[in-house]
Amino acid sequence: MEINDIHKGSVIMIDGNAYKVIDNQAVKPGKGTAFSRTKLRALMSDKTIELTFKAGEKIQEAEVNYFDCQYLYNDPESFIFMLKDNFEQYSLPKDAIGERAKFFKENMDCKMVFLNGNPVDVNIPPKMDFKVTEADPGAKGNTATGATKQVTIETGAQITVPLFVKQGDTIRVNTETGEYDVRV
């Protein structure tokens, strides 16, 4: 597979490690050859790296399988998921989940990623709805610049939202960026 064929969400192998493509930008400079600037997330550790590939460079696509699953609970070291088709339970270490853990709700539907028959990652929905559990009242005054405040959602995560969001509201959050999307 060529680097030009990868897209956001593709899983590729580099030096024996599987990486998920978070972002891929094709750059065509006025002088010189085109290249791709790629942001990757390691499936086993949740660490991100940025690599540059020359246009037309060959890369190995990882052979992964996706299965519908449900998040059940977490213990001190890992997160436990159940496959929906056969009810088997699998765990992923907290290191593999990383920052996405703050968006996990019990019984949440997701997709488990398997590489060589072993679970290596889980894909959560890109946007999810959460109930605001704590919100300070917005300060009146200088709102010409789109004033914001911090609120706590049902999972305990802190999200920056516009001043009009109050406790008890349901908001949609982009789970990839951790940013407020809309009040629902």
TrEMBL record:
It holds the Pfam family Elong-fact-P_C. Pathway: Protein biosynthesis; polypeptide chain elongation. Residues 128-183 form the Elongation factor P C-terminal domain. GO terms for cellular component: cytosol. Residues 66-120 form the Translation elongation factor P/YeiP central domain. One of its GO terms (molecular function) is translation elongation factor activity. It is found in: Cytoplasm. SMART domains: EFP, Elong-fact-P_C. PANTHER family: ELONGATION FACTOR P, ELONGATION FACTOR P (EF-P) FAMILY PROTEIN. Belongs to the elongation factor P family. This is Elongation factor P. It comes from Candidatus Wirthbacteria bacterium CG2_30_54_11.
